[in-house]
Amino acid sequence: SVDFDIQRVRADFPLLSRTVHGKPLVYFDNANTSQKPAQVIEAVDRHYREHNANVARAVHQLGEEATAAYEGARDKLAAFIHAGSRNEVVLTSGTTQSMNLVAYSYALPRLQPGDAIVTTVMEHHANIVPWQLVAARSGAIVKAAPIDQRGELIVEKFFELLTPEVKLACVAHVSNVLGTVNPVREIARECRRRGIPLLVDGSQAMPHRPVDVQALGCDFYAITGHKMLAPTGTGALWAKREHLQSMPPFFGGGEMIREVRFDGTTFAEPPHKFEAGTPNIAGFAGVGAAIDYIQALGFEAIRAWEHELLSYATERLRDIPGLRIFGEAADKEPVISFLIEGAQATDVATLLDLEGVAVRSGHHCAHPLMQFYGVPATLRASLAFYNTREEVDAFIAALLKVRKLLM
Ligand code: PMP
């Protein structure tokens, strides 16, 4: 067993000690959004109690403190993902906004009729729909690389799609439904060889593994804060400096300008050029605290514990007759999609909830992946480092009870 003081870790997460329908909560919906440690909650609370002001506008003390928290989060994020510079980190409301920024500001001006954007069948809608929207405006098309039954990307097929008319390639680092870890380094190498920029959706990777955007060799990396202990409405886009330099602003307004004149407005340098308006300052105070928390715990300990839980939960699920697991990639993060033969996913999730167990049911914002497997929905148990073997046991016991009810 892994040396990990799980009880001490759990004590940091106030919500984990609550009950649901009279039962102790088992929170296995971490891929949807993570719970928050007291350190993050307190950072947000402290911001509003002690430092609240707007950023980058005021010379007074509070304005400087708020700016320090906001810009401090950028510094921490930049170091966390090994960005070449803090100026390569655009703060956003989450991956969805990061993707749309790339779609409208990077892709759209470059797309001609007949061009293409390549993505994969396993993507979240956030890594499909923005590309479809800009493709529709420009006469370009979106192509999706296939996966195999185990839920692994067929990398050679992805490469076959990388023809000269492709202006952008997009792939998830980790699938939110299958847990599959895609070979991003290898994909980035091939994209570079063909001169095609690569965007990586890092939403589901950041909570589970150290990320080094320079070592990965991609061009864009999209980040969501709320899945990695930080408040909702926080995220980032990392992009190579030359890309940010070449991109026109997406949102216009305050904070993103150099000088506004009716005969021609000039813009701030990246990243501020892309950060119009008042941002989620308190949220980013929380992002800073979330990164501090993860780094204090360390990915070595986090990964060891999460993978012990993943193996244990997978083993226990495999013992249940008629249970089918979706996603058996050799390299996967602690996300398990499954169905029980003869039972609707939503019925199972609803009954599990009555047992205090929170899992997600549905299409997980991945319709094409559901179409690939020929199912309307799956159940998804997604684990975090603050989960326990006892919670896995409670989940399995609840599942067996529900299965009996529905059979
Ligand atoms: N991509 C993936 C792989 C995700 O799991 C999610 C969140 N479910 C998103 C993108 C979108 O993130 P957000 O809703 O935080 O913008």
TrEMBL record:
Keywords: Pyridoxal phosphate, Transferase. Residues 26-395 form the Aminotransferase class V domain. Its cofactor is pyridoxal 5'-phosphate. It catalyses: (sulfur carrier)-H + L-cysteine = (sulfur carrier)-SH + L-alanine. InterPro entries: Aminotrans_V_dom, Aminotrans_V_PyrdxlP_BS, Cys_dSase_SufS, Cysteine_dSase, PyrdxlP-dep_Trfase, PyrdxlP-dep_Trfase_major, PyrdxlP-dep_Trfase_small. It holds the Pfam family Aminotran_5. The keyword Kinase does not apply. Its EC number is 2.8.1.7. The keyword Metal-binding does not apply. Belongs to the class-V pyridoxal-phosphate-dependent aminotransferase family. Csd subfamily. Catalyzes the removal of elemental sulfur and selenium atoms from L-cysteine, L-cystine, L-selenocysteine, and L-selenocystine to produce L-alanine. PANTHER family: CYSTEINE DESULFURASE, CYSTEINE DESULFURASE 1, CHLOROPLASTIC. This is Cysteine desulfurase. It comes from Dyella mobilis. The lineage of its organism: Bacteria, Pseudomonadati, Pseudomonadota, Gammaproteobacteria, Lysobacterales.
